[in-house]
Amino acid sequence: MNDFSTLALRREIIESATARGFERMTPVQAQTLPAILTGDDVLGQAETGSGKTAAFGFGLLNKLAVERAETQALVLCPTRELADQVGQALRQFAATIANVKLMTLCGGTPMRAQVNSLAQPPHIVVGTPGRVLAHLRRESLHTHALQTLVLDEADRMLDMGFIDDIEAIVGCLPDERQTLLFSATWPDAIREVSTRLQRNPKQITASADRQPLRITQIFHQVDDADKLVALEQVLADTQQRHKAFTQALVFCNRRDDVDRVCAHLNKRGVAALALHGDREQRERDEVLLRFANQSCAVLVATDVAARGLDIASLPLVVSVDLARDIDTHTHRIGRTGRAGEAGRAVSFCTPRERDRAERIAAAGGFRLNWSRWPETQASARAQPPMATLVVQGGRRDKLRPGDILGALTGEGGLTGDDVGKIEITTVRSYVAVARAKAVPARDRLRQAGIKKRRFRVGVLDD
């Protein structure tokens, strides 16, 4: 049986798996966890959504000595967004183990604040290579007690040019350690890195144990000058199909095109947000949070910026610019049709790009479905049902989700149905509330406070 109880896992981790609804192991967990638990290095091929975070997370937590105030595990990720996602997952996995301290170390956060926090070493560090290396060089991060190194989405890190930073980081780590390397693909560069960083790794290829993808792929031949009109029509057609608020993820290849498309949609009454590398890290974090909160209808992004984005129900993905290769195309369309739901992936293709589209289809093993982009008299206007409040107080102020929910409901005037996701960071808290009640909710929190304390509160969508 693919049951976690059949493995030599500590009781708290099995309780965590049960609490999170993990009824049985996914293929990647069933194949990698036995090797991880016996201390072997692992070279694992697994896609996003396959359950690999739980595989390496349960493994590193299983041998964590909480009584030792030392950094014992390091997880490297290619982007801040993925690092945050992995960090949140590990915190949830560790919820049943008392006093586990975890830190994310990424750019976009002041070094001094991180240095101060590292004065009390975390048991687990999740971060991007550049920022982790910066702390190692200034000796604010100590890794003499490190037991486990994880490289998550290693192929993406190599694509982004992080190999020198990774090798420099490894040079600061103990030779006696376990190294777990997970990658969606195994190009020669990954195998070469594995040879240098790992010792006789168990090589495991696992596919995600999930329902078959129900994605309808559609290709429209569109001239560059017509792309914005075609995008409006595709969005309007989707709204008509669902007869309710729906969200869409739109990909562009260039940052300036992301801004251009986003500005056009907002002028046309579609609540859109832009996500790319030129934005400050806090802005990028808040854009992703607002999209996850249903506080915007359309997210327009570059591929790197959208890495790690995981929205459970997303009916539509549009590539305004055709993906450059099959891996990028696969990553894009994989954002829809998740959890067994149906999804549509629409790709625009100029006449000069037809050959590239044919190559992508051939490499992906699917047939091109060409059609005329829809023409409808309906408007693409879409205002989201939720707005996001930002409270200038967080974990540092001992705030918990229940504190904020309690302040908003009851005498606060909102019902439980009016409140959506609540996310608390070190210094800020974000809460999704029904858009029509956002301003009264803001005013209520400003006047009555939370836990008898006053905090600055604003509507993030302003």
Automatic annotation (TrEMBL):
Domain Helicase ATP-binding: 33-204
Entries under SUPFAM superfamilies matching the protein: P-loop containing nucleoside triphosphate hydrolases
GO MF, one example: RNA helicase activity
EC number: 4.2.1.2
The keyword ATP-binding belongs to this UniProt entry's keyword annotation: yes
Entry's family note: Belongs to the DEAD box helicase family.
Name of the featured protein: ATP-dependent RNA helicase protein
Organism, as annotated: Salinisphaera shabanensis E1L3A
Underlying gene: dbpA
